[in-house]
Amino acid sequence: MPDAPGLELIRGEIEQDHPGAVLDSGFEHGCASLAIAPEHALAVLTWLRDSAGHEYRFLSSLHAADYLPAEPRFAVHYELLNRDRVERIRVKALLADPGEDSLPEIDSCCELFPTAEFQEREAFDFFGIVFRGHPDLRRILLPEDYVGWPQRRDFPVGGEPVTFTYNERNYG
Amino acid sequence: MAEAAGTKASTGAQDVGSGGPRTEAQPPPAGPPEAAARETEVMTVNIGPHHPATHGVLRLVVDLEGEVVKDLKPIIGYVHTGIEKSCEDKSYWKVIPFVERMDYVSYFFQMEAFCGAVERLIELEIPERAKHLRVIFLELNRIHSHLVWLGTTALDLGAISMLWYCFRERDRILDLFEMATGQRMHTRYFQVGGVIEDIPVGFEKKLREFIAEMPVRVGQYQALLDRNEVFLSRTKNTGIVSRERLLELGVTGPLLRAAGEPWDLRKAFDYLAYPKFDFKIPIGTVGDNYDRYRVRVAEMVESTRIVEQALDGLPEGPFIADDRKYVLPPRSELPTSMESLIHHFKLVTEGYRVGPGEIYYAIESPRGELGCFVLADGSAKPARVHFRDPSFVNLQAFKDMSIDGYIADMIASLGMLDPILGGVDR
Fold first, then answer.
1. For residue B27, what are the CA distances in angstroms to A56, A78, B22, B31, B32?
2. Which one, A78, B104, B250, B376, has the greatest CB density within 10 A?
3. Element holding A62 (H helix, E strand)
4. If residue B211 lies in a helix (H) or strand (E), which one and from where to where?
5. B 377-406 residues with CB < 8 A to A
6. C-alpha distance from A133 to closest chain B C-alpha (Å)
7. C-beta neighbour count of B353 within 10 angstroms
């Protein structure tokens, strides 16, 4: 893990190259994390992956989270890993909810990290986050005709209605 | 898959036959199409979701040119049960049995990923004895998982007897689980803070018998397979993917190690008692299906060594942390101590609260990096639980493994990929 001062150095270097990209940096439970603006997500990820001395070349995990009622509401988490130095860093792209019918959007990182393909589809499936430039953005785990984004916090936990034809015929 | 192709062909033949006699004086059918046209014909075959060779409900849409795989699409989601969403509605200690049921072959690993993540969130240190006990059960679970893999994959490749031998040893591991935890599968043995119970009298003796026997058994499996002509020709030089491509695709675990990359989270990160133990990381050279087999079989022996060392060095002391805010008080205290009774009541009814924060904790499961992301919002229920399941991520490499190979090799590659569909779909 980069320690707390190391994280601040990284933050400073990114801000030199991409002003306004880093919104916040934090160090909690032994884990460094950078909160970034979604429009700079690809630039920051490319920087962390390629710039000398950092080289976080392995994307361990990509997942989304819903921070309701906080604003901005959504975040896409990129758990990056440098396997030589055995260091992890978390990049959080904060996404606001654009309201009613439109979905939050962010650039896809499939070109940078091909492993993100399934994981971005999963985030789209459950949170309705659109990844621009994804080669095949469809639902992955839920049925294709499913309506709604079930992992959002305002989506109720409840049963899917199951029709038991036997019961209906005899007692319905 | 042979069946699917067969019915397609036979229905086609029937149409011609039944249409023939009814019309009179039909012109003779045109001669066979040009050889060149036949060669380029691509047939799309659906395999699964219910098919014994897919190790679960995995559906594959395969484009075949003759017997050669030209394109492949895995379609998943048939056993999606919304476990991650359900976890958000359960207090932390009730989440444990839920997450066990994701990857139903390596349930101890799911428990460790979740409990470890929560322990790091609340910064609770677990006792040394609990660390050793966890390692013992994790490594037994790794052997168990690899045995299930070896038995079913060898079965796919025609070595039927392997299944019975592997499941014989698997049953002994399940007996050990049952003895210590009361359950053969989905044991709910790990708790936040340690393990729920100490190992019973007589467990050590049974475990030592198993440890002594297991390497011999592994040798027997190798004697059955390593010089088996059919097995060798079906696994050697099939399903090769380069190390660089595997890393791009985020593949971890035995698949990556078989391609020659010595990456194992047990060595890389310091978690549980792993730094204390002496064990090797088996790696392959070419990255074909044979290497994957050899790596996993060698891992079984290494896991046996870890279990032995953990048992030899098993320290005395408590098996669960003594923090009454998070850990249930001992049963014996309840009749005499009001304080314990209150804690017990609060923990069982509301559960403990976890302060706001988030954590990603990754461990080495039998299939690769198993990561657990927990977002806590200060209440007694997690706001988000996400599992980075290695089967899910590794499945993306399946296309690279199978393309331009024979369909029979695809089945071998799928077995060697070892996806658990419960973990893929969650």
1. 68, 65, 13, 11, 15
2. B250
3. strand A58-66
4. helix B203-225
5. 383-384, 386, 388, 392-393, 395-396
6. 18
7. 16
Alpha-carbon gap, residue B42 to B64, rounded angstroms: 5
Side-chain-side CA neighbours of residue A151 (13 Å): 29
CA distance B147 to B418: 11
B82 — alpha (psi -120 to 50), left (phi > 0) or beta? left
Count Cβ atoms within 10 A of the Cβ of residue B211 and give its class: 0-12 exposed, 13-18 middle, 19 or more buried: middle
- In the block, which residue shows the tokens 């990056």? A80
How many Å lie between the alpha carbon of B121 and the closest alpha carbon of chain A?
7
What's the CA gap between B393 and B74, in Å, rounded?
Answer: 12
Write down the pLDDT at residue B55. 77
Regions of chain A where pLDDT drops below 70: 1, 159-164, 167, 172
pLDDT for res B393:
92
Quickly count: other Cβ atoms within 10 Å of residue B13's Cβ.
10
Is A60–B359 a contact, with Cβ atoms under 8 angstroms apart? Answer: no
- Residue B148 CB contacts under 8 Å (≥ 6 apart), including other chains: B105, B166, B167, B170
Q: What is the pLDDT of residue A9?
A: 83
Number of Cβ within 10 Å of residue A137's Cβ equals 18
Torsion of CA B192, B193, B195, B198, to 10 degrees: -160
Question: Which run of H or of E encompasses B190?
Answer: strand B190-191
A66 chain-B contacts, CB cut-off 8 A? 383-384
State the pLDDT at residue B14: 37
Where is B94: in which H helix or E strand?
A: helix B92-100
Which residues of B fall within a CB distance of 8 Å from A157?
Answer: 85-86, 88-89
| A61 contacts in chain B (CB < 8 Å) | 360, 362, 371, 373, 386, 388
pLDDT value of position B323: 87
Q: Which residues of A touch B120 (CB under 8 A)?
A: 29-30
Q: Which candidate from A31, A126, A151 shows the least CB-CB separation from B359?
A: A31
Q: Extract the residue ranges of chain B whose pLDDT is less than 70.
A: 1-39
Q: Do B89 and A157 touch (CB under 8 A)?
A: yes
Given a contact cutoff of 8 angstroms between Cβ atoms, the answer to whether B83 and B65 are in contact is no
Average pLDDT taken over every residue of chain A: 86
Sign of CA dihedral B279, B394, B101, B96: positive
Identify the pLDDT of residue B35: 54
Q: Report how far residue A156's alpha carbon sits from residue B246's, in angstroms, rounded to the nearest whole number.
A: 38
- 3-state secondary structure (DSSP) of residue B159: coil
Task: Give the one of B84, B386, B393 whose C-beta lies nearest to A118's C-beta.
Answer: B393
Q: What is the pLDDT of residues B82-134, one digit of tens each?
A: 899 989 988 999 999 999 999 889 999 999 999 999 999 998 999 999 999 99
For residue A72, say if its preceding peptide bond is cis, omega within 30 degrees of 0. yes
Cα→Cα distances A150→A146, B67, B246, Å: 10, 41, 31
Q: Which residues of A fall within a CB distance of 8 Å from B426?
A: 141
